[in-house]
Amino acid sequence: MFHSQYPAELTAFFDGLWQDYITVAPLAARIVKLFAAEGESVINDHVAFRTMSHSAIRLSVLESILTGLGYEPYDYFIFEQKKLQAKAYRHARLPDAPKVFLSELQCEELPDSARELLYSRAAEIPDQGIEDQRVFWRGPMWTALDEQEYAALGQISEYAAWLLTMGLRVNHFTVSVNHLQRWANLQQLNGWLKSNGIALNDTGGEIKGNREVLLEQSATMADWGWYRFSSGKQAKLPTCFYEFALRYKGRDGVLFDSFVEGNANTIFTSTDHRRR
Ligand code: NI
Fold this sequence. Notes:
8-stranded mixed β-sheet; two-stranded antiparallel sheet; alpha+beta; binds nickel (II) ion; 10 strands; globular
């Protein structure tokens, strides 16, 4: 899945992310097997993370780990309705390395109850190990939520409820459809995925974006995993999803390598099974 010519530290980073990811989202491993059965090998377009402001794992802290791995920021986004900011990173020397999309919940913009809940959990994040790249798959570093907290937070911000239950870990990997041989377009790929029983996010249509914005994306709905609430009661909650991205060349003949706010805005709902 990952180029063997990567520096060891970068290979370890993506291996760590992938192992954690397929543990909570075995759906992704299943899809990679389906691709392999077609003779396709997967190249990753990007990986995406969610985090929160005013915390030891805020975007600027995580950014310093990424820059240590050779990544550079190259684009910035705002999602006003979801109260997020996000930055895109690419590797300075390895153009084929997956891009990184890092989004951050602006906790200060949330209603008091949600903000206080986020700040109380953020205060529990230990000092140790958070400068280490392994923090990117450390999961929750705080006390579990109770059922009421989870339900109330989810009403305000599905993103926040996901973050506090799943913690810091990859939210999705993304297959580069440009590197696949068998499917000429995303529509065909989606048809094949669905014929294999895979549910896609259909918020705003299965394909987000179009040729005009130079980026088309689809995503599965998130897989499910058991979560133990602070009461000890367990429930299956959405974990992570798998995304598929097809990029187009702009008028300059250069393949578009950034992100589109409108696309990302609907992709975020892949962890929100209530939308279905
Ligand atoms: Ni993505």
